[in-house]
Amino acid sequence: MTAVLHLDHVSLVHSDGDDHVTALDAVDLEVAAGELVAVVGPSGAGKSSLLAVAGALIPPTSGTVRVGGVDLAGLSSRKLTALRRERIGFVFQTGNLVPALTSLDQVRLPLTFGKVEDPRDPAELLAEVGMAHKAGSRPHQLSGGERQRVGIARALVTRPQVLLVDEPTAALDRQRSQDVVGLLAREAHEHGVAAIVVTHDHDVLHHCDRVLEMVDGRLSPQGVAVG
Ligand SMILES: Nc1ncnc2c1ncn2[C@@H]1O[C@H](COP(=O)(O)OP(=O)(O)OP(=O)(O)O)[C@@H](O)[C@H]1O
Q1: Residue 190 C-alpha to ligand 1 middle, in angstroms?
Q2: In a domain? residue 30
Q3: SMART domains given for it (predicted)?
Q4: Which atom of ligand 1 is nearest to the CA of 15?
Q5: What is the pTM of this model?
Q6: ipTM score
Q7: Is 156 in contact with 177 (CB distance < 8 Å)?
């Protein structure tokens, strides 16, 4: 399998005056096209930092991040913005939808920021995530699970190579959590997306192809002590 997302010895140190916090400590990670990787771990372990670095939102302090073979360190801020828009999809805890927009317009939104080669059809995508019947609804008319589905469709409309998902089930009951993570797995597998989902929810891990654990900024296969 081809790895789409490569992190090679990535460290991230947050500095605040004389205070230094190592959020990521020499992280190596490869995620292949069509693979859903779960990252679990205690609060403050560095999981959000991992998504921020993998998603080209924060440059690492050291190490290399490559998306689709492109080393992010070599890119201007304009090129980084374009790469984020075209190749990376983000899904946040609560869906992060725009209050005034209908579900269909939420999914169209990423296509209005600039030219996208070969986007997916927003209406078809909405149907694929089981939300065609709510195409005209606004976020306040949707349940938490429905908002997440719309947020997932929005993240996928540009056909990203990489999908980064932060705690998608935090606000959901058990059944909806299963449905949402099952949907993420299906989308990753069927559309060849390299996906990472950060979660505290151990009930959804069976949907994922691999489970990694982050402790004190270090990443290891779940159940393996970090030394
Ligand atoms: N901007 C920042 N400045 C300073 N320290 C930061 C900053 N962002 C994160 N940190 C620190 O880096 C470490 C990792 O934080 P991060 O948010 O990545 O953890 P997390 O695993 O996502 O936690 P949670 O599960 O609570 O969301 C923590 O010690 C945190 O306090």
Answers
A1: 33
A2: yes
A3: AAA
A4: 4
A5: 0.92
A6: 0.92
A7: no
